[in-house]
């Protein structure tokens, strides 16, 4: 019975008694653990499974069962049994953990509302940066979309991507981001959490208010993804596809044009000799250098020598900053034909009669 051990790769361990109970170890890879012991109880852990333990922690220990595929079982004591026992004792501490997954980059950010760091599910939850409040637990019957408020606050010296947090939020950092609130429980502050309860899972829907140090958001539950227009296809004069999406089939990179910021540009107007009138209306621009690197804006108007944006830039563009410009599409049949030669994938119905009013 090793007290610290590791079983990796394609391994099989058989035995009885206490032979299968490492008190601190990892079983990983394509590993099978079988036996009759206090650790296994006719159990099998197979597939790409990770098993880490403290005492009898995280052992599939009750009855006869199997943990398979890409699985990780976490806990302390007797796993789920220990969690139930801890809650029944009414002597525990708890902390709320917030996990933010950014839609633009897939980056995961983790925070906690207590004054000390928390390790849970192989992640470090930071107590010293972003302060988060909100997202309460709620149960109801039916398919009503739950929408809750959440508040974020931080000092100006807290940076993400090299810029203050709330400047980045203003530039779309949290657009469609996923946010989870999870509560973990432990016997005391010096012990590893035993288990957790997910209080809320959802997607950022709107920003109600934003200052340089605070932000108020609305987060909707995942049921909001079911709110789709029906019928899926409608008969209308404009195309059902969006330029460069899977239905349109056109490659965005094929229409990418590289440009540089001209002298005299402002936050909402960019001087560029390549700003073909009409061609870039409702198109986009993405900066690849300078203070606005990585930011995109929708083009409201192109005049031949200037691009005008729907929303101003957060930082003044510098002369010579580089960017990519992409054309726009008004979703009409004629634009699809003359500008993109893509009528084979056009989903507009231009010959539908326009609405008329009878008196």
Spatially, the strands of the biggest sheet line up as 12-11-19-20-21-16-15
Question: Helix content range of the residues, please?
Answer: under 10%
Q: Tell me the domain tally.
A: 3
**What class do helices, strands and sheet pairing give?**
mainly beta
Give the overall average pLDDT.
78
- List unreliable stretches of 5+ residues: 1-78
The amount of beta strand, in percent, is 25-35%
Number of helices: 3
Distance between the termini: 92 Å
What does the overall shape look like?
globular
Describe the structure in your own words.
There is one protein chain. The protein has 359 residues and is mainly beta. It has 3 domains: 5-73, no CATH class; 93-226; 253-345, Elongation Factor Tu (Ef-tu), domain 3 (Beta Barrel). The protein is 7% helix and 35% strand. It is built from 3 helices and 27 strands. The strands form 8 sheets. A 7-stranded antiparallel sheet has the order 12-11-19-20-21-16-15. It is globular, with a radius of gyration of 28 Å. Mean pLDDT is 78; it is low at 1-78.
Blueprint of the fold:
Layout: E1 5-7, E2 11-13, E3 16-17, E4 25-27, E5 31-33, E6 36-37, E7 43-45, E8 49-52, E9 65-67, E10 71-73, H1 80-89, E11 93-101, E12 108-112, E13 118-120, E14 123-125, E15 131-134, E16 147-153, E17 159-160, E18 163-164, H2 165-170, E19 178-186, E20 195-210, E21 214-221, E22 257-260, E23 269-271, E24 284-287, E25 296-302, E26 306-309, E27 322-326, H3 333-340
Parallel strand pairs: 1-4, 2-5, 3-6, 7-9, 8-10
Antiparallel strand pairs: 4-8, 11-12, 11-19, 13-14, 15-16, 16-21, 17-18, 19-20, 20-21, 22-27, 23-26, 24-25, 24-27, 25-26
